[in-house]
Design a protein that fits this description.
The chain is mainly α. It is 70% helix and 0% strand. Helix 1 packs antiparallel against helix 2, helix 3 runs antiparallel to helix 4 and helix 4 crosses helix 5. The longest helix has 33 residues. The protein starts with a helix and ends in an 8-residue tail after the last helix. The C terminus is likely disordered.
Amino acid sequence: MPTSLTACKKQVRNVSRLLKRDSLDSATRVDLERRLKALNILQSQLSNAQVDKANASRYHGIKFFERKKIIRKLAQVENKIKEGEQGLEPKQHELLVNLNYTTYYPNEFKYISLYPADPSKTTEETKERQKVIRDKIAQAMEDGDLPKDPRLVNAEDRKAIRKNNKLLLRTVSLAHNSNAEYAESSSDAGSEDEFFA
């Protein structure tokens, strides 16, 4: 099996061309159809991985600065709690949810910033998608799928948590049709050559 998207597309094209021949016997045809189905699945996986990688690098800086801002606010809230101020536990929980949001946001979709530069430009649809994702992350924290305090998790454990919860976090984003359409348009935009599409 090919390991790169380009090699996979080439093999899909080659197998498709072979299937167009009339001179194939039935056993060979069935074998090629199975191979084509497997290659199509592999192609979609490689395409998704490519989009994930591009979005991870694209939004790394935004997520980093938002995490720093949240950690700073969280430290302030925790200091006030230590000083004896009451009623700050919901704010602390909200900040921990935001920290998990920036840490475990699914990379296959455009990142929705918690602190946009111009909040007036944020649409209601975007706010609703962000709320659904935050609610799902809060639920995963309560269920124990995500850490209650992500500051206590090291890098290796974060990777394992992300890998184990990838399906959970993707289903959140796929809850809205617009996100699914975005994923399709992103994967189409990622192909370099229309010849292989």
